[in-house]
């Protein structure tokens, strides 16, 4: 059974994607109890007991709590596999906190709850690939690229939601009913993603298939470029990495 220290949004998404009973603790939020009620398993009041009983442990607490959690677990973590989903926490920090454990750094995103997620795993954690493949695609990256992975995959569902909101609002301002605008855009978004996949990620080809010289799509693309779409994503990446 997998144990979760912390049962926030990302930990909950993983647990739902795996779809099995869990052991869980939290800092008093009640989320662990809610997760166990949904999936089965047991809520525990002590992290050390969770670690002793779990087959593998997922760290889903706040990053700043790492040393406190590790100290509370103590020798119970000896020989255990500890998987961190803590943002901005390096392998070196994890190894320092859990020197007697096998530590793995993973950066998943919330679509793992639907088994359509993306998880990036730092090199050295390949033994966790099969576990995360159960909830979506997995990419093994050098440790040096994990911060960029966080800034381009883990946060991306929020960015896509914001883009969807902006596009839907534009449609409503243009005269579409809100419910219809939402339905139309989400169907278009899903189809466009499938088209990009079918084209092997060739974004230029997909754009050219829609864009006639001097036509309406060309004018719309020019407006997006003029208003800094690429710059916005570049600055968002730097903001995430810079913390």
The end-to-end span amounts to: 34 Å
Largest beta sheet: strand ordering: 3-2-1-4-5-6-7-8
CATH superfamily of the largest domain: NAD(P)-binding Rossmann-like Domain
Helix and strand pattern: EHEHEHEHEHEEHEHHHHHH
CATH top level of the largest domain is Alpha Beta
Which segments are poorly predicted (pLDDT under 50) over 5 or more consecutive residues?
none
Shape: elongated
> What's the alpha carbon Rg, rounded to whole Å?
21 Å
CATH topology of the largest domain: Rossmann fold
Please outline the major beta sheet: 8 strands, mixed
**How many structurally independent domains?**
2
* CATH architecture descriptor of the largest domain: 3-Layer(aba) Sandwich
Question: Keywords, please?
Answer:
2 domains, alpha/beta, eight-stranded mixed β-sheet, 243 residues, elongated, ProC C-terminal domain-like fold, single chain, 8 strands, Rossmann fold
Q: Can you describe this structure?
A:
Residues 2-86 form the Pyrroline-5-carboxylate reductase catalytic N-terminal domain. The protein has 243 residues and is of the alpha/beta class. The chain has two domains: 2-141, 3-Layer(aba) Sandwich (Rossmann fold); 156-242, ProC C-terminal domain-like (ProC C-terminal domain-like fold). The protein is built from twelve helices and eight strands. α7 packs across α12 and α8 (156-173) crosses α9 (178-198). The longest helix is centred in the last third of the chain and has 21 residues, at 178-198.
